[in-house]
Design brief:
Layout (H helix, E strand, L loop, with lengths): L5 H6 L5 H5 L3 E2 L2 E10 L2 E9 L4 E8 L4 E8 L2 E4 L8 H19 L28 E2 L2 E5 L5 E2 L4 E9 L4 E8 L4 E8 L2 E10 L5 H24 L4
Antiparallel strand pairs: 1-2, 2-3, 3-4, 4-5, 5-6, 7-8, 8-10, 9-10, 10-11, 11-12, 12-13
């Protein structure tokens, strides 16, 4: 048999015990009921913390016919890499078991750290960032190295400047597999790549943040102001 139609899945949500058994609150995040179908995605339920710019959406997508949690932290919206299931019951079982992990991962009030592979880089002792402006143009400092965000494919976002109203963003990440620091931008929510801040594997680990600091000194303010003027 093929996969059920997304509207059939939506119609069955009211009888799904898993949704009825979800905690109403966890770590300050409140359970919200399904917001329905939007495009290829059916929202099953959400956890939202007011004022945090963070949420967890439990979803079904006809793009891959999978049930999958989707994390939102600021303008970072990404699926959980560990929980893709076509089997509804398996998704329910694993999600219920891992719900505390999922919510802690997006909760900016919880402490976070990079995996051991990043230890040689020295993020814990890198104090340059503390002197960075809290706001450049209309972009405010949202994520800092003392509380990084575990992102996609081994990347950790450790600096993030964002204009939440206009959808402009410049963020910096370290990838533990590629052993490199890199940056990406968004202009009005549209992603843009840049190599302006790249510090690759060819730079010694203990030198990476020193080189990166020099790149910030040279390019940070101009990049953000150019981004706001759509000159990138």
């Amino acid at each position: 048999m093929g996969q059920p139609n997304i509207t059939e899945i939506e119609a069955g949500l009211k009888d799904w015990d898993f949704l009825a058994q979800l905690p109403q609150e966890m770590y300050g995040f409140t359970l919200m009921p399904s917001s329905g179908i939007k495009g290829l995605v059916l929202n099953l339920a959400s956890y939202v913390k007011p004022g945090s710019r963070c949420r967890l959406d439990l979803t079904y997508t006809t793009e891959t016919f999978d049930y999958v949690p989707v994390k939102t932290v600021g303008l970072h919206v990404f699926r959980d890499e560990r929980l893709f299931y076509r089997d509804r019951d398996k998704f329910a079982q694993e999600t219920m078991a891992q719900l505390p992990r999922l919510i802690k991962a997006i909760d900016r009030d919880q402490p976070h750290a990079m995996d051991w592979e990043a230890q040689e880089i020295g993020f814990e002792s890198w104090d340059y960032w503390r002197g960075l402006p809290k706001k450049i143009g209309d972009l405010e400092l949202f994520i800092t190295p003392d509380n990084p965000l575990a992102y996609l494919n081994g990347s950790y976002v450790f600096l993030d400047y964002t204009d939440f109203q206009r959808g402009n963003q410049l963020y910096f990440a370290y990838n533990i597999y590629r052993n490199e620091i890199f940056a990406e931008l968004k202009h009005e929510y549209f992603p843009i790549t840049t190599t302006r801040f790249d510090v690759g594997r060819g730079v010694q680990d203990k030198r990476k943040l020193a080189v990166f600091s020099e790149l910030l000194e040279t390019h940070l303010e101009k990049t953000i102001l150019d981004l706001e003027k759509n000159k990138i």
